[in-house]
Amino acid sequence: MAVSARTDPAVTLAEALQSLVPVALAGLEQMQDGPTGLFSHKALLGPGGELINRGINPLYTAASAVGLLSCAGGPRSPHPASATRALDALLERRNESDPAVLGATLWACVLAGRPEAPRVAERVIAATLPRQASSMQLGLALTGLARWLAGGDGDGDRNRTGQAARALAAELSSRYVTGAHVFAATSHSAGRHPVLQRITSFASQVYPVLGLCELALATETTPPPEVARVCDFLVQCQGELGQWWWFYSRRVPRVIEGYPVYSVHQDAMAPMALLPATRLGLGDYRRSLLTGLRWINGHNELGRSLVDRRAGLIHRAIQRRGADPDGVAGWSRRQRAAVSLAALTNQARTAPRELEVLAECRSYHLGWLLVAAAMARDLG
């Protein structure tokens, strides 16, 4: 019988995450595009229980490759052919300029022991302009460079890579908002949607924390104090049912809007940030992570599991009815207006109203879940 974080309160975080690995592997097996080797943008559940893919996504492909390679157990162990195909497809994208895609691709190259890693590291450095990149992009670029510094083989200018990594880390640290205990999503608000200029997201905390922790682990140094402050603040804000809320104020320490609550935050992204922080001794966040994991297994607002083991699917979110999952931040126009008002008045809007399950799955979710499971396994 599969381990369930809902039915067995004594289960460890590592065991609970490991129980979801077969689901992630089954889903990813169905979400890779045959002709290109890339993974889909999202998958819907078909009438016969099969997954129906929609679009392809390079970033999601890189995350899926990292996950599959992490699941394989390290750079010297055999890894799935699907990860090799995905990585080959990414390396063929010679015009790719997104720092997040390149950073995750470098991470995958290091895990796979690929000889292209030094060249990809150079591409990450060239493409990542610290002041222009988002905090998510900086975090993944920094993670790739840190992994290369820690475990890369072959040729490459380590001094240049280390200097570039420290520049990205300094930019991320400068984005910490002291009064709100969060990282800003960008260095400036120009060009951002007006609603997003006054708030920052859970993702804009996770990827910077991950990158800064990975650099500290690679260089055997202590991460900047902002990392522990952000981690502690996220745990302080965690919902009663373990929800990792979506948007936070950039003015005061407060949740602005909690929904959608994304499954990937619960079982993958929160562990990807808080487990490295735990490993570095900044705190032990495993109890909070396990509470968050129980949320997807049915201890949530709707009392239903979001895991479909038969289909190889974890439903994407619990969202407010009428949301637009492909819109800005997953909101409808009416919801964006409500969030904008909340950001102006500092009134948190996290109480659940009429909620529904968003019945789709993104491939990066399953990839990051495999990463989180490997991190928990290695931490012990």
Radius of gyration over C-alpha positions, nearest whole angstrom: 19 Å
Q: What is the helix fraction of residues, given as a range?
A: 40-55%
Shape label: globular
Strand runs, count: 13
Approximate strand percentage = 5-15%
| Element pattern in H and E | HHEEHHHHHHEEEHHEEEHHEEEHEEH
The span between the termini is 22 Å
Count of helical regions: 14
Trace the largest sheet across and list its strands.
2-1-13
Class derived from helix and strand content = mainly alpha
**Which parts are unreliable, with pLDDT below 50 for 5 consecutive residues or more?**
1-7, 343-351
Mean pLDDT: 88
For the biggest sheet, the summary is: 3 strands, antiparallel
How does this model look, in words?
With 380 residues, the chain is mainly α. Helices cover 50% and strands 11% of the residues. The protein contains 14 helices and 13 strands. The protein has helices at 13-18, 21-30, 58-72, 81-91, 99-112, 117-127, 135-151, 158-174, 203-219, 225-237, 263-279, 286-296, 333-345, 363-379, and strands spanning 40-45, 51-56, 176-177, 182-183, 199-201, 247-249, 255-257, 261-262, 307-308, 313-314, 317-320, 355-358, 360-361. The strands form five sheets. A three-stranded antiparallel sheet has the order 2-1-13. A hairpin with a 4-residue loop joins strand 3 and strand 4. Helix 3 packs antiparallel against helix 4, helix 7 packs parallel to helix 9 (203-219) and helix 9 runs parallel beside helix 11. Residues 1-7 and 343-351 have low confidence and may be disordered.
